[in-house]
Amino acid sequence: MPPKLYVDAPPNGDFRAMPARGGGYATLKWVTSYPGNPARGLPVVTGALLVSDDETGELLAILDCAAVTSLRTGAAAAVSALALGRDGAATAGIVGCGVNGSSAARCLAAVGYREGVCADVRPEAAEALAAELGWSTGPLAAALACDVVVTVTPGSEPVIDAPDLAAGRHLAVLGADGHGKAELTAAALDRCRLFCDQWEQASTGGELAGAVAAGTVTRDDVTDIGAVLAGEVPGRRSLDEVTLFDSTGLAIQDLGIAIAVVEAWRAGEVSATEIAL
Ligand SMILES: NC(=O)c1ccc[n+]([C@@H]2O[C@H](COP(=O)([O-])OP(=O)(O)OC[C@H]3O[C@@H](n4cnc5c(N)ncnc54)[C@H](O)[C@@H]3O)[C@@H](O)[C@H]2O)c1
After folding, report:
1. CA distance 46 to 63
2. CB 159 less than 6 A from any atom of ligand 1
3. Residue 150 dihedral angles phi and psi, to the nearest 5°
4. What is the CB-side half-sphere exposure of residue 272 using CA atoms within 13 A?
5. N or C: at which end does the chain have fewer Cβ atoms within 10 angstroms?
6. What does the longest C-alpha to C-alpha distance in the chain come to?
7. Using one digit for the tens of pLDDT, what is the confidence trace for 204-238?
């Protein structure tokens, strides 16, 4: 899986090309992050995922990438909470309750988070998500007071500052997945023990990119969550530590979902429109 390639498209946002290969398949996701799209009645994340047979190169399927992206984005946040949250963590705060924040909340609920606080500058978005999951709505401070906090805002301005961070918190920061975006202030980032999904992406186009460019965060300061999941390195070291997972979104995660979809289609479990090219 090479790092994703960005094609900046100012002032609208950017396109990304995300290739990966494995498990008998190869995929390419062509996808946007267009933060102003909701005002046009369109999603921020839009595009298609091509699925090819690794053996023959044959194109097998074209999937809408919105559902694929939100499933794997939400799942990554929940996996990070399981891996890095402190023992006894029970409450989840969601900051930014749009498409991908909602998916993160659903995934946290699916792994056992029964209580959560939904915060959004659009109260109706927070209310809809809270009603769906039986959680509550609240101001930003109430969401930040939860044991696990997931941020999925457009990343145009920080939503977490150092005084917001109580000991033992786990943060999954998802919104800042492109150039110039950040959801934490530099002082807040400084308080956290840092984890990422992939260094090449996180250091150039993720939450950590600004601090890497400024020289305040280096490769040695950041642990790959994959190494924690594989049991190669420890995750959280104490109850008090504030852990931060910078999730930039990996093509390999999209590949995993695509394989599940294509194999479900082959097994007759899901239907699809068939076209001859
Ligand atoms: N890391 C990843 O893997 C990944 C995957 C998908 C999307 N993203 C990124 O996540 C961001 C959001 O994407 P989306 O598809 O969920 O968009 P969306 O527009 O559906 O949701 C964003 C939500 O954030 C809310 N919001 C904006 N400013 C806020 C603030 N200051 N405080 C609280 N809430 C605020 C908006 O009202 C909206 O409900 C984008 O930057 C996108 O590129 C990252």
Report:
1. 11
2. yes
3. -115, 125
4. 18
5. C
6. 58
7. 988 999 999 999 999 999 999 999 999 999 999 99
C-beta of residue 91 within 8 angstroms of C-beta of residue 115 = yes
29 catalytic, yes or no?
A: yes
Q: What is the DSSP letter of 205?
A: H
Q: How far is the CA of 105 from the centre of ligand 1 (A)?
A: 13
pLDDT of residue 177: 87
For residue 11, whether the previous peptide bond is cis, meaning omega lies within 30 degrees of 0, is yes
pLDDT, residue 150, reads: 98
Q: What sections of 7-152 are H helices per DSSP? A: 65-84, 99-110, 123-133, 140-144
HSE-up (13 A, CA, CB side) for residue 202: 22
The proportion of the chain whose per-residue pLDDT surpasses 70, expressed as a percent, equals: 100
pLDDT tens track for 103-132: 999 999 999 999 999 999 999 999 999 999
- Rounded-to-integer distance, Cα 79 and Cα 252, Å: 15
